[in-house]
Amino acid sequence: MKRSTGTGRETGAQAGALEALRGTHVLLVEDDDEMRKMLAFVLRRSGYRVTEERDAFQALEYLGNILLDGHPDRAPQLILIDQCMPGVCGLDLIQATRTAGMRIPAILITAFGDAEIHNRAHALDATPVLDKPFRMGELLAIVQRLAPATDG
Asked: Which CATH architecture has domain 23-145?
Protein backbone atom coordinates (compact mmCIF):
# COMPACT_ATOMS: atom_id res chain seq x y z
CA MET A 1 0.00 0.00 0.00
CA LYS A 2 1.49 3.30 -1.04
CA ARG A 3 0.13 6.41 0.57
CA SER A 4 1.18 10.00 0.16
CA THR A 5 1.84 11.05 3.74
CA GLY A 6 4.72 13.49 3.62
CA THR A 7 8.32 12.99 4.65
CA GLY A 8 7.62 10.49 7.38
CA ARG A 9 9.41 12.67 9.96
CA GLU A 10 6.34 14.39 11.34
CA THR A 11 4.70 13.32 14.59
CA GLY A 12 1.14 11.98 14.32
CA ALA A 13 -0.42 15.35 15.18
CA GLN A 14 1.92 17.22 12.84
CA ALA A 15 1.30 14.76 10.03
CA GLY A 16 -2.46 15.14 10.43
CA ALA A 17 -2.23 18.93 10.39
CA LEU A 18 0.12 18.94 7.39
CA GLU A 19 -2.01 16.42 5.52
CA ALA A 20 -5.00 18.74 5.78
CA LEU A 21 -2.98 21.48 4.06
CA ARG A 22 -1.68 19.44 1.13
CA GLY A 23 -4.46 20.00 -1.39
CA THR A 24 -7.59 18.26 -2.50
CA HIS A 25 -7.45 14.57 -1.62
CA VAL A 26 -8.14 11.93 -4.30
CA LEU A 27 -8.38 8.22 -3.52
CA LEU A 28 -7.06 6.37 -6.57
CA VAL A 29 -7.98 2.68 -6.79
CA GLU A 30 -6.38 0.84 -9.71
CA ASP A 31 -4.94 -2.69 -9.82
CA ASP A 32 -2.71 -2.10 -12.85
CA ASP A 33 0.55 -0.78 -11.35
CA GLU A 34 1.65 1.22 -14.39
CA MET A 35 -1.76 2.83 -14.89
CA ARG A 36 -2.00 3.68 -11.17
CA LYS A 37 1.48 5.23 -11.16
CA MET A 38 0.73 7.27 -14.28
CA LEU A 39 -2.62 8.53 -12.97
CA ALA A 40 -1.13 9.36 -9.56
CA PHE A 41 1.72 11.28 -11.20
CA VAL A 42 -0.67 13.31 -13.37
CA LEU A 43 -2.95 14.08 -10.43
CA ARG A 44 -0.10 15.08 -8.11
CA ARG A 45 1.44 17.26 -10.80
CA SER A 46 -1.94 18.98 -11.08
CA GLY A 47 -1.98 19.83 -7.35
CA TYR A 48 -3.89 16.89 -5.89
CA ARG A 49 -2.95 14.84 -2.85
CA VAL A 50 -3.31 11.20 -3.85
CA THR A 51 -3.77 8.06 -1.81
CA GLU A 52 -3.10 5.00 -3.95
CA GLU A 53 -4.72 1.63 -3.36
CA ARG A 54 -4.20 -1.50 -5.48
CA ASP A 55 -7.69 -2.91 -5.06
CA ALA A 56 -11.11 -2.24 -3.63
CA PHE A 57 -10.43 -4.33 -0.50
CA GLN A 58 -7.55 -2.02 0.44
CA ALA A 59 -9.66 1.03 -0.38
CA LEU A 60 -12.50 -0.26 1.81
CA GLU A 61 -10.03 -0.82 4.65
CA TYR A 62 -8.63 2.69 4.20
CA LEU A 63 -12.08 4.32 4.16
CA GLY A 64 -13.29 2.14 7.04
CA ASN A 65 -10.34 3.23 9.17
CA ILE A 66 -11.21 6.87 8.51
CA LEU A 67 -14.75 6.25 9.75
CA LEU A 68 -13.74 4.06 12.70
CA ASP A 69 -11.09 6.53 13.82
CA GLY A 70 -13.76 9.23 13.94
CA HIS A 71 -12.08 11.42 11.32
CA PRO A 72 -14.54 11.79 8.44
CA ASP A 73 -12.80 15.10 7.70
CA ARG A 74 -9.84 13.05 6.42
CA ALA A 75 -11.97 11.33 3.79
CA PRO A 76 -10.98 11.99 0.20
CA GLN A 77 -12.92 14.58 -1.77
CA LEU A 78 -12.99 12.29 -4.81
CA ILE A 79 -12.60 8.61 -5.64
CA LEU A 80 -11.12 7.59 -8.99
CA ILE A 81 -11.66 3.87 -9.38
CA ASP A 82 -11.22 1.16 -11.95
CA GLN A 83 -14.24 -1.09 -12.51
CA CYS A 84 -12.54 -4.44 -13.20
CA MET A 85 -10.29 -5.54 -10.35
CA PRO A 86 -9.79 -8.86 -8.58
CA GLY A 87 -12.29 -9.42 -5.78
CA VAL A 88 -14.48 -6.37 -5.38
CA CYS A 89 -15.29 -4.32 -8.47
CA GLY A 90 -15.32 -0.53 -8.61
CA LEU A 91 -19.10 -0.23 -8.56
CA ASP A 92 -19.29 -2.42 -5.44
CA LEU A 93 -16.81 -0.11 -3.68
CA ILE A 94 -18.90 2.91 -4.64
CA GLN A 95 -22.02 1.12 -3.37
CA ALA A 96 -20.25 0.38 -0.06
CA THR A 97 -19.34 4.06 0.40
CA ARG A 98 -22.95 5.06 -0.24
CA THR A 99 -24.21 2.45 2.22
CA ALA A 100 -21.77 3.82 4.83
CA GLY A 101 -23.18 7.32 4.28
CA MET A 102 -20.09 8.63 2.49
CA ARG A 103 -21.22 10.80 -0.41
CA ILE A 104 -17.81 11.14 -2.00
CA PRO A 105 -17.95 11.94 -5.72
CA ALA A 106 -16.64 9.05 -7.79
CA ILE A 107 -15.32 8.61 -11.29
CA LEU A 108 -15.41 5.09 -12.64
CA ILE A 109 -12.89 4.07 -15.29
CA THR A 110 -13.42 0.93 -17.30
CA ALA A 111 -12.22 -0.96 -20.34
CA PHE A 112 -15.62 -2.65 -20.55
CA GLY A 113 -18.06 0.25 -20.52
CA ASP A 114 -21.26 -1.49 -21.52
CA ALA A 115 -24.72 -0.03 -20.93
CA GLU A 116 -25.24 -2.02 -17.71
CA ILE A 117 -22.08 -0.58 -16.11
CA HIS A 118 -23.01 2.95 -17.18
CA ASN A 119 -26.55 2.52 -15.81
CA ARG A 120 -25.34 1.12 -12.45
CA ALA A 121 -22.79 3.93 -12.15
CA HIS A 122 -25.43 6.55 -12.90
CA ALA A 123 -27.75 5.03 -10.27
CA LEU A 124 -24.94 5.41 -7.71
CA ASP A 125 -24.22 8.99 -8.80
CA ALA A 126 -20.82 7.81 -10.04
CA THR A 127 -20.75 9.77 -13.21
CA PRO A 128 -19.10 10.18 -15.47
CA VAL A 129 -17.82 6.79 -16.47
CA LEU A 130 -14.62 7.03 -18.49
CA ASP A 131 -14.07 4.29 -21.02
CA LYS A 132 -10.44 3.29 -21.60
CA PRO A 133 -8.58 4.56 -23.41
CA PHE A 134 -9.29 8.15 -22.40
CA ARG A 135 -7.33 11.38 -22.72
CA MET A 136 -5.61 12.72 -19.60
CA GLY A 137 -6.94 16.18 -20.39
CA GLU A 138 -10.47 14.81 -20.35
CA LEU A 139 -9.87 13.11 -16.99
CA LEU A 140 -8.31 16.21 -15.44
CA ALA A 141 -11.18 18.40 -16.60
CA ILE A 142 -13.67 16.07 -14.90
CA VAL A 143 -11.57 15.79 -11.73
CA GLN A 144 -11.23 19.60 -11.58
CA ARG A 145 -15.00 20.01 -11.99
CA LEU A 146 -15.83 17.48 -9.24
CA ALA A 147 -13.01 18.32 -6.81
CA PRO A 148 -11.12 21.52 -7.63
CA ALA A 149 -7.44 21.41 -6.69
CA THR A 150 -6.61 23.61 -3.73
CA ASP A 151 -3.31 25.25 -3.01
CA GLY A 152 -1.42 23.27 -0.48
From this structure: 3-Layer(aba) Sandwich (3.40)
